[in-house]
């Protein structure tokens, strides 16, 4: 039995990001369900501002349902592109006193965190120097065992490094229990005071600036080879949320190495200078993906959180992701597009594919998903695009999207390692962090950061995005009107409205959503075949018995023993 008492409070305020006064209606509900009383708030902006949002009575972030843990953060900032992340990390590493954790898909000790500094030292050399200066410091690096091989490095590279043999540094290569699964989390934790989470590994071909110049002499791998511009994102956290990331690193270490490590004591690691916090005094939600193995159940918090966030959208869904090939996410986006009053959807993803299988399967599924969404887009609310910058010869150079971002209205922001493919939903290990606005200041911060990302791709100022969004209330209109420069966003032309929409054959092998267990399946198939064989033999035996009984009855009938 549920009863609801309803009251309405009207007030006005001026958000920091806006000018003018907005009339607000706040509906207060006292909800009594099965004898338990709880409170819920619903806020509705009554003007036509793009910052008008309706907060559902049920929050997006729900502990024990779609996240692993929620913890307060004193300060949070979003480091756009590798140059900002590496420069920030370079500064914070100097403050490490007890524990430095590095967890990643790949790791290359030869990279320089500050390639713009001619005197910059390689990362491995830097770690060796820090150890020499800090006798209490322990550095633990956990890398997916196949990551260096997939990225073209030999494991001999690490054996040749002097720093890797230091007793205060432990470098371990973690195998994945699931066949062909990977460890895809990208985490750094410094004394549980500062933590970094996102899509950027400490390896080659990740550093770039927001300019994403088609040619940049600083954008070279440790072997001196140039690489294409790449857009990525990492979050820096301070406070209890950073301790939670430290706990996750220690948990991963114990699971892979078998060694339990206690949390560090209190140290004085300070917030990096020159990094402006975008959010302060907020709660950070942490969502993981872990595949099931043996009796250990899997975790699909990241997928559940993403789906719940997409369902909650009222006006705008903004997505940046390396891949756009998830069947479940695509199905939900299609449902939202078919709604008469559903949200607009802007997706910025990568066009290029690396390798034959990725092109056929991942690229093919992306194209088929775009086709399905175009068929569902009855009201013109969809844009799926990739970014380009002008090249010296007058052509266009694609910017590789490696970021993983979901922004919902001005209410929710998720950044992490999870791609919009099937592997990230239950096969690889992933870690995302998210914030759900609990105040108008946080709502304005989320909107401002989303606008900053879009402004980078459109080569305009974020204030221009904000101005036009306030004028039109449409994120799609912003993209269409401002996408007029040489640097900008391009549509996926050439995808016909009619054609195949089902998943490409072989998706379950190349991009599985759960662990591949060929031996378990073979055993199950063998058991089924054996069971069917025994069932058939039992039927044959029973039939034979019936025939034998019938013959015996004819030869030896009951009564006088003579056939009538």
From TrEMBL:
<keyword id="KW-0472">Membrane</keyword>
<feature type="domain" description="PLD phosphodiesterase">
    <location>
        <begin position="397"/>
        <end position="424"/>
    </location>
</feature>
<dbReference type="Pfam" id="PF00614">
    <property type="entry name" value="PLDc"/>
</dbReference>
<dbReference type="GO" id="GO:0005576">
    <property type="term" value="C:extracellular region"/>
</dbReference>
<keyword id="KW-0443">Lipid metabolism</keyword>
<keyword id="KW-0964">Secreted</keyword>
<keyword id="KW-0812">Transmembrane</keyword>
<keyword id="KW-0677">Repeat</keyword>
<dbReference type="GO" id="GO:0009395">
    <property type="term" value="P:phospholipid catabolic process"/>
</dbReference>
<keyword id="KW-0378">Hydrolase</keyword>
<protein>
    <recommendedName>
        <fullName>Phospholipase D</fullName>
    </recommendedName>
</protein>
<feature type="domain" description="PLD phosphodiesterase">
    <location>
        <begin position="179"/>
        <end position="206"/>
    </location>
</feature>
<dbReference type="Pfam" id="PF13091">
    <property type="entry name" value="PLDc_2"/>
</dbReference>
<dbReference type="InterPro" id="IPR015679">
    <property type="entry name" value="PLipase_D_fam"/>
</dbReference>
<keyword id="KW-0614">Plasmid</keyword>
<dbReference type="InterPro" id="IPR025202">
    <property type="entry name" value="PLD-like_dom"/>
</dbReference>
<dbReference type="GO" id="GO:0004630">
    <property type="term" value="F:phospholipase D activity"/>
</dbReference>
<comment type="function">
    <text>Could be a virulence factor.</text>
</comment>
<dbReference type="InterPro" id="IPR001736">
    <property type="entry name" value="PLipase_D/transphosphatidylase"/>
</dbReference>
């Amino acid at each position: 039995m549920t009863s609801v008492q309803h009251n309405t409070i009207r007030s006005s305020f001026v958000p920091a990001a806006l000018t003018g006064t907005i009339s607000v209606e706040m509906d207060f509900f006292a909800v009594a369900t099965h004898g338990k009383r709880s409170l819920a708030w619903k806020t509705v902006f009554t003007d036509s501002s793009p910052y008008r949002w309706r907060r559902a009575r049920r929050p997006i972030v729900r502990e024990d349902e779609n996240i692993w843990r929620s913890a307060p953060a004193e300060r949070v900032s979003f480091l756009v592109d590798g140059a900002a992340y590496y420069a920030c990390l370079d500064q914070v590493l100097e403050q490490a006193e007890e524990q430095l954790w590095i967890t990643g898909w790949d790791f290359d000790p030869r990279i320089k965190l500050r390639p713009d500094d001619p005197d910059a030292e390689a990362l491995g050399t830097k770690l060796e120097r820090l150890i020499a200066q800090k006798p209490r410091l322990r550095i633990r690096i956990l890398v997916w065992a196949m990551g260096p091989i997939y990225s073209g490095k030999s494991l001999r590279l690490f054996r040749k490094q002097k720093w890797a043999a230091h007793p205060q540094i432990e470098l371990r290569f973690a195998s994945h229990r699931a066949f062909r699964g990977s460890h895809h989390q990208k985490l750094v934790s410094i004394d549980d005071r500062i933590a970094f989470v996102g899509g950027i590994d400490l390896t080659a071909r990740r550093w770039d600036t927001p300019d994403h110049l088609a040619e940049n002499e600083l954008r070279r791998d440790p072997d001196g080879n140039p690489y294409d511009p790449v857009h990525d994102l990492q979050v820096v956290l301070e406070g209890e949320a950073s301790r939670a990331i430290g706990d996750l690193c220690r948990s991963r270490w114990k699971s892979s190495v078998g060694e339990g490590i206690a949390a560090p004591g209190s140290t004085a690691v300070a917030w990096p200078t020159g990094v402006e916090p975008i959010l302060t005094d907020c709660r950070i939600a942490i969502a993981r993906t872990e595949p099931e193995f043996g009796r250990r159940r899997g975790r699909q918090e990241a997928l559940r959180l993403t789906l719940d966030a997409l369902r909650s959208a009222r006006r705008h869904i903004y997505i940046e992701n390396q891949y756009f090939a998830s069947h479940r996410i695509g199905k939900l986006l299609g449902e939202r597009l078919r709604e008469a009053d559903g949200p607009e959807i802007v997706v910025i993803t990568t066009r290029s594919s690396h390798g034959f299988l990725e092109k056929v399967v991942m690229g093919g599924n992306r194209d088929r998903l775009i086709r399905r969404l175009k068929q569902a887009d009855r009201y013109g609310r969809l844009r799926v695009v990739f970014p380009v910058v002008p090249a010296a010869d007058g052509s266009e150079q694609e910017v590789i999207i490696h970021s993983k971002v979901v922004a919902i209205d001005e209410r929710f922001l998720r950044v992490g390692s999870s791609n919009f493919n099937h592997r990230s939903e239950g096969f690889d290990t992933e870690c995302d962090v998210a914030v759900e606005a609990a105040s108008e200041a946080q709502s304005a911060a989320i909107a401002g950061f989303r606008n900053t990302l879009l402004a980078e791709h459109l080569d305009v100022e974020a204030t221009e995005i904000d101005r036009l969004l306030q004028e039109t209330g449409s994120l799609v209109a912003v993209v269409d009107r401002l996408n007029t420069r040489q640097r900008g966003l391009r549509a996926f032309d050439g995808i016909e409205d009619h054609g195949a929409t089902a998943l490409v054959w072989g998706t379950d092998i190349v991009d599985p959503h759960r662990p591949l267990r060929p031996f378990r399946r073979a055993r199950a198939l063998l058991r089924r075949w054996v069971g069917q064989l025994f069932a058939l033999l039992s039927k044959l035996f029973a039939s034979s018995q019936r025939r034998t009984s019938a013959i015996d009855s004819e030869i030896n009938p009951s009564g006088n023993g003579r056939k009538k």
